[in-house]
Amino acid sequence: MKTLRGEFTVKKFGSILLRTINDYTEAVLGTVKKKGLLSLKDEKPEVLRQISESLTSLIVGTSSARIALVRNLLDEQVKGLLETGHAVVVIDAKLTDRGLVGAGGGLLASVFEVGLAWDLLLDLPYVPGSSFKGAVSAFAEVSAGCDRLRARRRGSEDKCVAEKEHAERLDALRALFGDSSDSDGSMGSLLFLDAYPVEPGRRGRLVEPAVITPHYHRGGEPVRYEYEAQPVPVPHVVLAPGVVFRFITALPLDRRNEIAEALGALGLHVNNDSVEVSVAALVSSALAKGGIGARTTKGYGVFQLVSARIAKPKPKA
User: Fold this and answer.
1) What pLDDT, on a 0 to 100 scale, did the predictor assign at position 224?
2) Where do the CRISPR type III-associated protein domain residues begin and end (predicted)?
3) pLDDT tens by residue, 247-260
4) CA dihedral of 132, 133, 134, 136, whole degrees rounded to 10
5) How far is CA 273 from CA 34, 261, 277, 281, in A?
6) What is the value of pTM for the model shown?
7) Spatial CB neighbours of 176, under 8 Å, sequence gap ≥ 6
């Protein structure tokens, strides 16, 4: 096996992530060798820009086969859930703008400083189930008015009523999404799977280059006065607009009544609808109105519903 400085075997194995890390390492070492270590600070933004464009091109060229594999994997996941007594809500949703999930960590953060959630086995960007669950939970909490109830609990005439309603809704949230605040936490009744791209976005892209420019830092430290700032662009990659992700939520049939009661307590369950329809409405609303990941206030991570379907186990003979 050749060393990292030579033609590494990532080309043989076709790992986009490893190829990107390898290209970045070689570019940095080459810059230091030619221009010295002190030049790296000025040269790094251009290096990252080139790496982000290379990553974008690499994944465009191989995404079709990877997406086909993902579709098969997701179909098998749905089949497995049905066989184990779960109703399944499958939602395909399209990014209306860019997306950024997992900005604070992962291997890509070691290259770009801004991360992006990346599946190491499938070699694709994805939305971790924990991020999916957190986004739906946060949206449900706001939709149920828990923030308004917290305000009413502080000094209002109906403080006792507000406290009771707040406690009931928190219990309902815990029943649906679990509670990890202590060692005795529970996982909740709803299951949220990792979401994967099933259709590329504009120009066939799954990711695309992006740049942020922190304005109020100098040498990596916050500045007290604006005139001290030295803005330095930070190139990275984000999810491309138009990418369609598949979001899968599962409901254990033996906890169906519990889920219905919790949704009802939150005001999120319409009596005429099935529990599965209510869950589908909650998830699609969370994706469209709340978004997932970083910079949602800037329009990132917001999805438009493409399709929704509900699958239930076949009755046993």
Assistant:
1) 63
2) 104-303
3) 999 999 999 889 99
4) 90
5) 67, 13, 6, 10
6) 0.84
7) 137, 140, 188, 189, 190, 259, 262, 263, 266
